Amino acid sequence: MTAADPSLPTRPVAPVGIGWRHPHYAELLRRRPALDFIEVHSENFLAPGGAARAVLRQGRESYPVSLHGVGLSLGSAAGIDEVHLDQLAALVAEIEPVRVSDHACFARGPLSQQPGQSVHACDLLPPPFTREALDTMCANVQRVQDRLRRPIAVENLSAYVRWQANEFDEPTFLNTLAQRTGCGLLVDVNNLLVNALNDHLQDGSIDPLAQCRRWLDAIHPGVAAELHLAGHVHCGDIVIDDHGSRVVPEVWALYRHALVRFDAVPTLIEWDTGLPDLAVLLDEVDIARAQARQAMKLDMVAA
C-alpha cells in the first residue's frame, strides 16, 4: 500500500454522530454543533408525552435521530414483550428515526413459579450460537420488523461468558440472521476489541487485533448499517466495556479497517459513564471524521 495522495478525489465519508445523554440536552440544543445524527436510548423515551419526549422532539428538529434499544431481548425464547414493542412502535411513528437498533442478546425468561409471568435480567446476556437460538432470534427480529414496518439493526455484544454448545462462530450467526430476516448489523468495534482482549487474558497466544480483523472480514459488507466506537477500562484481569473514556488507538485502527471493508457506514461516538463536557465528544467526532477520510483515501490508493 502506498501513501495517500491528498490531491486524489475522496469517496463519501461516513456520517458521524454522538450518543445524546441527559447532561448534554440543553447545551446541544443551544449550540447545535455540526453532527450528522444523534442517538438516544429508546427506553428513556417510551413514555408518551412528558418532558423527555418533548426534548427528543426538539432534538429531532435539528438532527436525524437513531433509536438504540437495550430492552427488546431479541434472543429470548419467551418472545418479544408486546407492550414494549407497542411503545417502541409509537415512538418510531412520532420521531421517524433514521435507524432503529437493539442487541443480539437475551434478557427475558419465564418465571417457573408464576406461569404467564416473566423476569427481565436488566443485562445484555449472550445467546448460544446454535441453530435453535438462531431460529428464535430470527423469529423475534422478524416480529419487530413487521410491527415497525422497517428493518432494524442488531448489535454484536461485549460478552464475558461463552456457551460450550456453540455451533457457529459469531460472524456466521450474525450473517445468517441478516440474510434470513433482512435486518442490518450494528457493528460495535470496541466490543470486538474488549472480547479479544479478554480472550488474550485467557490465552496469551491470541493476537487481539488480528482476531478483530478476522471478525470484521467475515461479516458480509452489505449488511453493516452502523458502527459504534467507545472506550473501555482494563482492570488487569478483565477488560470492561464501560463507555467511559476516549476511543483508544487500537479501536481507531480497527475503525479504519472496518470502513475499508464496509464503506461509509454511519458511525456513533458512545459515552455513557463519567460523561465529560460536550466538547470532548465533539473532539472525538472530529477525530472520527479524520480517521474516515484517511481510510477512504488509502482505500482508493490501494484500489
What report would you give on this structure?
By secondary structure, this protein is an alpha/beta fold. The protein contains nine helices and twelve strands. The strands form three sheets. Strands 1-2-3-4-7-8-9-12 form an eight-stranded parallel beta barrel, surrounded by four helices. The longest helix is centred in the C-terminal third of the chain and has 25 residues. The chain is globular, with a radius of gyration of 19 Å.
Short synopsis of the structure:
With 303 residues, the chain is of the alpha/beta class. Helix content is 42%, strand content 17%. The protein contains nine helices and twelve strands.
Major β-sheet, in short?
8 strands, parallel, barrel
Name the beta content range.
15-25%
What is the 3D form? globular
Helix-strand sequence: EHEHEHEEEHEHEHHEEEHEH
Structure summary, number of beta strands: 12
Q: Mean pLDDT, rounded to whole units?
A: 93
Class derived from helix and strand content: alpha/beta
Oligomer designation: single chain
Strand order of the largest sheet: 1-2-3-4-7-8-9-12
Low-confidence spans: none
